[in-house]
Amino acid sequence: MIKTKNLHKSFGDLDVLKGIDLDVETGEVVVLIGVSGSGKSTLLRCLNFLEMPNEGEIIIDGRQVDLKKDDLSNVRAEVGMVFQHFNLFPHKTVLENITEAPIIVKKMKKERAEKEARVILEKVGLSDKADVYPGKLSGGQKQRVAIARALAMEPKALLFDEPTSALDPELVGEVLQVMQDLANEGMTMVVVTHEMKFAKEVADRIVMLDEGCIIENTDPHTFFNHSTNERTRQFLEMVD
Ligand code: ADP
Ligand code: MG
To answer: What keyword terms does UniProt attach to this protein (predicted)?
Structure first.
């Protein structure tokens, strides 16, 4: 579903991604980990073309994205993104937040967009919040709205960048539960997270970035129990 070949990204003199080859199968959940500054967010942002790679290829659902010719808003509609800080529109209701992109980008009729949004809201457990403004919601509820908003575009894959890092500990579980439900339904997902329990239980594969390179790419059991990589051992001691 998502493939990169020799992906490079630098900011000025700083080489952040140094030739990333990543392959995410349809329905697969890949958890992306690594210390702060290792390039996790930059990689996700490249997959969604919020950052333009300097070199390499990105193939989405079998089609190589052409930065010069393709309409990137269409590509972004195929690969949704959920951010650490929700990024909801504060002056729009929950329902308006969710229906905005389907109406504007997908040219969906308002009635249909609202009907579908209500179905998705039910899925994330927020049916009663449709007409509320984000300011009235808890962090966990805001993040579930952000997930609903991404789902409303019917993406082929979803990217999560530390979706629970900004939440109070007691609100983390409700967001992870929604993500686990999506995984169980077969959604293709790339998740940057420090929640190792989620990684162990939900990930099909763990990819570890270190200084812009993939240093581990393996199943969770092997990663957590049998890694011989020194950097991995250090990382696991740090997050435990
Ligand atoms: P991570 O998400 O793993 O913490 P990032 O991808 O955010 O890492 O950042 C990797 C490196 O790239 C860091 O050194 C960061 O300061 C740098 N970086 C990220 N975005 C930018 C940017 N827009 N301009 C300049 N440097 C950036
Ligand atoms: Mg980051």
So the answer is: ATP-binding, Nucleotide-binding, Transport
Rounded (5°) CA angle 133-137-138: 160
Cα separation, 134 vs 192, in Å, equals 24
Whether ipTM exceeds 0.95: yes
Distance 134 CA to ligand 2 centre (A): 24
Contact 56, 19 (CB under 8 A): yes
The answer to whether 120 and 127 have CB atoms below 8 angstroms apart is no
pTM: 0.96
User: What residue has token string 């390039």?
Assistant: 39
Enter the tokens of residue 181: 């439900």
Q: Which residue has the tokens 């929700």?
A: 86
Identify which of 7, 41, 54, 190 to mutate to test ligand 1's pocket (most ligand atoms within 8 A of the CB). 41
Helix (H) or strand (E) holding 72: helix 72-78
